[in-house]
C-alpha cells in the first residue's frame, strides 16, 4: 500500500548514529519498504566487494521478525560474548495512526468535507512519519553489523543479507516466549548474585557504576521527552482546530476573525516544527537507552565470566586438596581464564568505542536540532512580522479613510 | 501627470487607454509583484499589503480586482520548512483583495464612499476627467493609487514611520473625540474570614468630565456591588432596548476556595481572572454614552460606601424570583410569533445567533489549547530536570556541560510556554467568553423589542374588543354603559398609540445599540489579535535567542 520513494529516504540525516556506511566494501541500506496491513516488508539492499558473497549487489525482502531472528541468533553466539550486540529494532508501531484512522472513519459523517480532507492529510503524514522512522531504525541495525569488523563476517548475517528465499522464521510460540521471560528473570537474579564478586579491573569498575547510573537517567529522560513532545503536538493540533473553525466562521459576514486565522496557522506551524525537533531528540535518547542496555549486557557477561573464573579457581584448589580430578579442574580453570581475558580485552575496546560513538551522535543530533529550531523560528518571526504589520496597516488605512485623508 | 509617469511601469501605461480592463490590471498586478525582489522582503511585504489594501478600499473596483489575483498568483501549498518567504507573502497579498470585505466588516458603520484618492492621484484624475470616459477615470485613479503604492515601496522606511506616527496621532484624535474617563481595578484584598469573607477590589477612576466631583478618586467595591449595579441598570434601561453589558459570572467553587484561604496558584489565578473581567465590565459600562449618564453609575464610581446588594445572592428570595421570571420569559418568547416588518432585525438576530454558536465552539477549543499549553509547560520543566540529571551523570565533560545547558534552555522555554498560556487565556479565551455573554445580552435586546411589540399587539386586540363591546351596546341600546365603553375605547386608543410609539422607539434604540456593538466588537477583536500577535512575536524572538545561545555549546562537544 504505502511505499517510500528513494528520494525521501536518501535523507541521510541520520542523527541517531554516526554514518555507518563509510566502508565501501560492504554497504547496506533499505531503499524501499512496503506496508501491508500490519506487516512491513523491508527491501534490504547490499552492495559489496567482499568475496564471501555470491554477487556484488543484491536485494532481499525481509520482515521485522527476521531482523529479530538475526539479533537473537547473534546474542546466542558464544563467540560474541565480549562484544556489544546492537540492540534489536523495535516492532513497527502503527497504533497511533491506526487509532486516528478509526476516529476519522467514525466521525466522517459529522465533519465537513474540508475538515475530513485535512484530517486525512494529517493522518497520512503521521503514517508516513512512523513508517520512515521504523525503516531508519532497521537500517541502522544492519549497518551496525556491517561496520563492525567481527560481526560483518558472521555467517548468519550473511545469510540474512543474501538468502533470497523466506527465512522461515516463525514467531516465538508461547513456550519460547515464556522461556525467554524466564531467562531474563534468571539473569537479573544472577546479576544480583555476581555483583558481590570483586572486580579486579578499575576500568570495568568505573564503567559499571557509570552505566548503571546513566542507564536509569537516560530511560527517565526518554520518557519525559516523549511526554513533552506529545503535549507539544496537542498544542499544535489545537491551533489546527481553531484555524479550521475560524475558516468556517470567516465564511459568515460581519466577523473580524480572518486575521486570527493566519495567526493560528502560524502558531500551528511553529508548534508542529518544534515537536518534530523534539521528536528527533527523543529518538536519540530512546536509541541510546537501548544501546546502553546492550553495553550493560556485555558487562554482565564479563562479570559472569569473572565469577566463573573465581569458581573454577576455587574448584581447582579443592581438587588439589582432594587429590582427584585435578587435570579436569585445571583444564576448566584454564578455559575460564581464557574466556575471561578475552571478554575483558574485547569488552574494553567495545566500551571505549561505544563512548566515542555516543558522544559524536549526541553532538550531531543536538547541533542539528538547534540549527533547525533557529532556522524555523526565524522564518516564523518573519511571517508573524508580516501578519502583524499587515493588520496594523489595514487598520491604519481604514482609519485614514474614515478621517477623510 | 509627470511625477506619476516616472515610475518604472511606463510602458504598460501607454496601453491603458486601448486595452480591456482585466488584462491591464493583470499587467498592473504583475508589476507590483515583480517589483519587490529589488527591495527588502520585509518592507515590500508591508508595501504590498498597503497597495492591495488600497485596491481593496475601492468598492467600485471590486470586479476588477477579483480577477487579476487569480491570474497572476497560484495559491502556494501549505509549505513545510524551508519556506519560500516570498511565496508566502504573495499568498498573503492574494488573499487580501478577495477579503476586501474586511474593511466593511471591521467598521460596519463606516459608509464606504469612494475613497478620496491621494492628493497627487486626485489631481491627475481631475485632469483626465474632461478628456476620457468615466471608466478610464477609474483606471487612472487606480493607476495613480498604484503609482503611489509603488513609490511607497521605494520609500519603505518613511511609510513604516508614518504607520507608527499615524497610529499615535490616531489615538490622540480618537481620545479627543471620546470622553476622557479611565477606570482601573486593582489590589484585590481579602476582607474578613471564613465563609463570610469576600474580596474587595480597588476601583480607581481618572476623569476630566465635569459630572464627577473630582478628577481622580478611588473606592472599594466587592463583587456583589458590581452585580448590584448591573441589576439596577437592567431594571431601568433594558426595557427600552439598551444593551446593558453583562457582568462576569458568579463562581461558587472559585470563591469558596478563596474564602477557605487556600493560597494556591489556582485561586490566585481565579482572583486575577475576576479582577480583569470586572475591569473590562466597568469599562464597557462607562463607554456606553447613555449608561454613563445614569446616576447609579456615578454613584458606583464615586460613593464611599454602597448599601449591600442583597438581591444578587444566589440563594435568596430575590434570586428565586429572578429565576422564575427568566423561566416565564423563556416560555413566552417561544409563543410570541412576531410579524416582522423590518427585515433588518430578522437578519440581524440570525447573525447574532450564528455568531454566538461559533464563538462557543471556538471558546471550547481555546480552552483546550490553554490546558494543553499548561500541560506542555509542566512537561517541559520535568524534562529539563531529567536532562540536567543526565548531564550530571555523563562522563564526557563537554557533553555533560552541553546537556546541562540544554536543560537550562528547556527551562527557559518552559517559562515562555507559561507566559504564552496565560496570554492565550487572557487575550483570547476571555475575549471569547466576554463576547458570548455580550451576544446573549444582544439577544436580550431583541427579546425586549419583541415584548414591546407584543404589548402593542395586545393593546390593539384589547381596543378591538372594546370597540366590539361598544358596537354590541349600541345595538342592545344601553346608553348608561355606552359612556363607559366610549371612555374605555379612548383609553385604549391612547394606549395603542403609546405602545406603538414605544415599539418604534425601542426598535430604533436596538438598531443603534447593535450597530454600536458591532463597531466595538470589531475594534476589540482587532486590538486583541494584534496584542496576541505581538506576544507571539516576542516569544519567537526569545526562542531564537535561547537556541542561538545554545548552539556554540552543542558545537563545542568533542
UniProtKB/TrEMBL annotation, chain A:
Keyword Protein transport attributed: yes
Family: Belongs to the sorting nexin family.
Native source organism of the sequence: Sinocyclocheilus rhinocerous
The entry's keywords: Protein transport, Transport
Functional description taken from the UniProt entry: Involved in several stages of intracellular trafficking.
Ranges where the PX domain occurs: 1-167
Record's GO cellular component terms: cytosol; endosome
Protein name: Sorting nexin
Automatic annotation (TrEMBL), chain B:
One MF annotation (Gene Ontology) recorded for this entry: phosphatidylinositol binding
Superkingdom of the source species: Eukaryota
PROSITE patterns: PX
Region ranges (Disordered): 1-89, 112-132
Residue ranges with Acidic residues bias: 55-64
Keywords annotated in UniProt: Acetylation, Cell projection, Coiled coil, Endosome, Golgi apparatus, Membrane, Phosphoprotein, Protein transport, Transport
GO cellular component, one term: Golgi apparatus
All residue ranges annotated as the PX domain in the record: 179-308
Coiled coil: 482-509
Localization per record: Cell projection, Lamellipodium; Early endosome membrane; Golgi apparatus, trans-Golgi network membrane
Entry-linked Pfam families: PX, Vps5
Main localization (coarse): other
GO BP field: early endosome to Golgi transport; protein transport
Keyword Transmembrane: no
InterPro entries named among the record's database cross-references: AH/BAR_dom_sf, PX_dom, PX_dom_sf, Vps5_C
Protein's membrane topology: Peripheral membrane protein
UniProt similarity note: Belongs to the sorting nexin family.
Protein name, UniProt field: Sorting nexin-1
Organism annotation: Sinocyclocheilus rhinocerous
Organism taxonomic ancestry: Eukaryota, Metazoa, Chordata, Craniata, Vertebrata
